[in-house]
Amino acid sequence: MSRPLIGITLDAADKPGRYELNHDYATAIERAGGIPFPLLYMLDHSLIPEVLDRLGGVLLTGGNDMDPARYGQQRHPNAVQLEPERERFEFALLEAIERRKLPVMGICLGCQVMNVHRGGSLHQFLPEVPRENALEHRRLDRDSPRHAVQIDVDTRLGQIWQKPELSANTYHKQAIHRLGHNLRVVATAPDGVIEAIEDPSFPLFAAVQWHPERLSDESDHLAIFQLLIQSASQASGLRTQHSA
Ligand SMILES: [Mn+2]
Question: Domains along the chain?
Answer without folding.
Answer: 5-243 (3.40.50.880)
